[in-house]
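pasting for the record
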Amino acid sequence: MLVDYVFPYVNSLDPIWQQTYSKFCEDNNIKENQFGNESARFRDFGNLIRFVFRSISKNMPFINNIFFIVQSESQVPEWLDKSKVKIIYHDQFIPPRYLPTYNSTTIEMFLWNIPELSEHFIYGNDDLFALNLCEISDFYNDAGLPKIHLNLKSKTYDISAFRKTVINGQNLILSDFPNKAPDKDVFYKTNHLMSPLLKSTVKQVWNKHRIDICNNISSFRTDKNVNQYIYSFYQVFSGQYIDEKFNGKYMDTKGCDIDDICKCLVNSTYKVVCINDSGLRNEKDSIRLYNTLNNIFNEKCKYEYINSDNTSTIQYNINDNLSKYGFKKGTIEIAEIKKDNFSIKFIESHKYPWLINIENLDYSECFSDLSAIKKSLINIKNKFKPIFDIIDDLKNTNILNSANNLNLVYDNFTISKDNNIISIDVENKKYSLDNIYLANDTVIEIQNIINTIIT
């Protein structure tokens, strides 16, 4: 039995994608954070897609072909060996009238039209990781029937827009099997993990319900859509399935503590886990999650170019906390090259360049030697210390406050006071005392980021 794997992917940092996306939103008056247009839906938080491929290669060795669905060529990661993966672009299987699309449910309605796709295929998402060894028997029985287990959920509890799409799909398929309808207050739902499907079933559902499906296709998600669950519903209601619960775990970054997620990744016996990015709380959580997965899947796989750069990048916006420490608004990239070899890049230059000049260290460049960065930061702190020690002594003896003018010369710096303005001369450059304090806080903040990375 040949089994393929299919999953869609979006790289929202791709400038070509951004241009198309922005223009479409502007032309159609689409506002951010509407359902289906949240930034987290398109975010590749930490370039974790590399670990999806590594997990499949390591723990799903039976997979015949991976069908990697992207909008255009610019979305394909540079490290991905295209000779080992079936790259499928939207316009190869989705009719032009539905493009461009930013809706995964639209993609799911046309899975039957993917060229060369095997009869048996597993559909997943880019947030699913095969943690432990999986076998074909986890997904299909010997006769090729998919293994599916449906749960009953109450309609009176947390009917989100997503769950409405599930109920829509259930009701659509129940029109073929009305005797399978559950009680009016509940609905069926399968776990959000990997879905074993049959291409013939997907095509059959399309042929039966293409009018209803097409009438509810949209560029962004709405609560009128149906999703890929309709195929599992059809398998179950038609009796062409094996009722078996899959050994997997769904986790949500908004509802689950990052420590619990990482512990689960390291220690669990689950075969597959989903880490749904509904909104990571901060950049440190992104780093922690990235490092945990990198420790688990730290070797290149057959889907990567042998000579490709083994670098994945975490990008996050500078928040107000970092802004007050001197970083301009922009993004910081934190990348890991090897297990103990990191690279830090501040896209926007620091607004206190003298901090760089003291140690001749350019924070706008990438560094791959973490120990050198830590040493440089310590050296900078050591240069701050005598300045602060003397300032404290001057304050304690009330000299700093009582004197109208000061010009105190020390070995490596000068402290002066003129018209109640205190200045520090460092390496022939003059800075206010407030800037000295801010720069010191900046060093502390960078050290905290590095300490988070290496823990």
